[in-house]
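Homework help board

Subject: predicted structure for assignment chain

Our instructor gave us this sequence and asked us to write out the predicted structure in token form, then describe one feature. I got the tokens but I'm not sure how to describe them. Can anyone check?
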Amino acid sequence: MKALRFNRFGDLSVLRIQELPTPQIGNDEVLLRIHAASINPSDVKNVQGHMEGTTLPRTPGRDFAGVVVNGPPELTGKEVFGTGGDIGFTRDGSHAEFIVVSAQGVALKPKQLSMEEAASVGVNYLAAYIGLVQRAGVRNGEVVLVTGASGGVGTAVIQLARWKGARVIAVDRRILPPDKLREQGIDLQIDVSSQDYEAMIRQVREFTSGNGANIAFDCVGGPLFEPCLRSLGQSGRQVNIVSVGTRGVSFDLTDFFHRQLTLYGVDTRAYDTVASAEILKQLTSGFESGALRPAQVVSRYSLDQAVEAYREVNSGAKGKVVLT
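My token output:
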């Protein structure tokens, strides 16, 4: 089979398409023929040596959609999708013609989604669900503030929040026209391109009649970390998944405990294919009803063009880049 491989860390020139034996399954495993696999920024960082714990040589790739060609009878021939913080790092990933994962590490593909769309769900919705639903416990009627709202995780958080009956404040440097706001279910958008974070806090307070947001899902971190905390109301919860620009942040600890705030950190790498599949199964009804939508696919490449596809992601693609 063909597979994208790297034997050492470095720039994207270390990637090569190689011919490898088709992997053999063990007990309670499935062999998938990959029909589509998206490329995440973390896949690029993995090749560049910025992700911890990766063993070499390795086939990268976390998200996938395909057909089970060998495994338990009840799964053989089924269209499935999945993701995992183990594949692409400590075991070979999805940027290949075939992959072996645990039989419990796949979820049946939502019927309404194409293979490309299903392959674009994984990491983004995994982070959104863990943070918003499992950790912060979003409830109907609450106000959710999302930073980096136009990004992959940000858009997934917005859709999940609306699905759970929450109101949404979208914070970003990219401003959407009114029709797009209605389409995405955004109740208030805040432009932070000027980096006037005091104005952001005032707008949140005005929107919530002085109460503050119930949840802040911060997809940016760095300079937005403290403004998000200050935008929360009493007993507010904040989720952080990354820190852009700087890893060190500061905040008023006395204010933090007086307002009884809670901080949650989310790392999707801690969720292998089995744990991830359980979450994808929880999301399936949302995709089948149309309440949830995958990220837009902006580019498609063959596996032979994988290096070019990685370069597009590395340059900041606005949407999903998919290998087919």
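Reply (TA_rk): Your tokens look well-formed. For the description, you could write something like this. The first strand starts at residue 2 and ends at 5. That's the kind of observation they're looking for.
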